[in-house]
Amino acid sequence: MPELPEVETVARRIEKDVVGKTIVSADVRWARTLATPSVKKFKEQIKGQKIKAVSRRAKYIHILLENYNLLIHLRMSGDLLLRTGKIKPEKHDRLILDLKMPNSGISQLAFNDTRKFGKVWLTNQPEKFLGKLGPEPLEKDFTPQWLYENLRKRKRQIKPLLLDQTFLAGVGNIYADESLHIAKIHPQALSNVVTLKQAEALHEAIVSVLKEGIRRNGASIDWVYRGGEYQNYFRVYDREDEACMVCGTKIKKIIVGQRGTHFCPKCQKVERK
Predict the structure, then answer these.
(1) Looking at 2, 5, 137, 160, which residue is catalytic?
(2) pLDDT higher than 70, residue 102
């Protein structure tokens, strides 16, 4: 599943080519892609809307229109593709927006989603869907002190807590594993016993791996996502039985919170308290 760096990469990739353009029409090729409104209303409401901005909130791509907000969650395999000219829709296209772009050859923005898990919302109340999300880890509200205080308020295993989007927005399986390894915190450690020093190390690690992930255009880890290169710099994720880059111990993989989790048993020891 794409995480913050991958979603940020997609948003940046399309931003310069679609902002200022007008949506002429919409071709909804898979009705279940639309979470809201109905297909009929979606086509009516989005027609003639000018694209004012493209940004990211957590794992959502947020396209600001003149009168509405278009929210897109890529889920497992979604992607946004820019195309030129009159192109025949591809097999896995779920939604195609035709754009009026007088000074550019690009004429389509297609939501392509092989596994059909992605969702699209057209709404004038974006906070209804985004309001419960936690702070952005690359924004000023996310500080070491905030992380320390909010970890201590909860008694949960730290890995699942980092994946909880209402706690912290955008962090997923890859970047949680990488951050915890850098901070030398076991993924099953309880959040309420984390020290201030550990919280500071974890904060620095989260910010660092996310920025590096964005710099390298995210990670290409399966047959869906290609182009990013962060996978070439993984410390623990997807490196089961390979040597830890810090101490040489074999990386282990366990299930934590129903998610495959990679860690170094020597660098990331569970503290018994």
Answers:
(1) 2
(2) no
Please give the full DSSP string across the chain, using - where no structure is assigned.
---HHHHHHHHHHHHHHHTT-EEEEEEES-GGGEEES-HHHHHHHHTTPBEEEEEEETTEEEEEESS-EEEEE-TTTEEEEEEESS-PPPTTEEEEEEEE-TTSSEEEEEEEETTS--EEEEES-THHHHTT----TTSTT--HHHHHHHHHT--SBHHHHHH-TTTSSS--HHHHHHHHHHHT--TTSBGGG--HHHHHHHHHHHHHHHHHHHHTT----SSS--S--GGGG-SSTT-TTSBPTTT-PBPEEEEETTEEEEE-TTTSPPP--
Range of the domain at 73: 4-130
Question: Quick check: is 164 in a domain?
Answer: yes
The one catalytic residue in 6, 8, 21, 59 is: 59
Domain tally, the chain: 2
pLDDT at 225: 57
| Active-site entry in 75, 184, 252, 259 | 259
Model pLDDT, residue 178: 98
Does the annotation count 3 as an active-site position?
yes
pLDDT, tens digit (0-9, with 9 covering 90-100), for 121-167: 999 999 999 999 999 999 999 999 999 999 999 999 999 999 999 99
For residue 90, indicate whether it is catalytic.
Answer: no
Q: In this predicted structure, what is the pLDDT of residue 226?
A: 62
Q: What are the pLDDT digits (tens) for 32-52?
A: 999 999 999 999 999 999 999
Report the CATH number that the domain containing residue 89 is assigned in CATH: 3.20.190.10
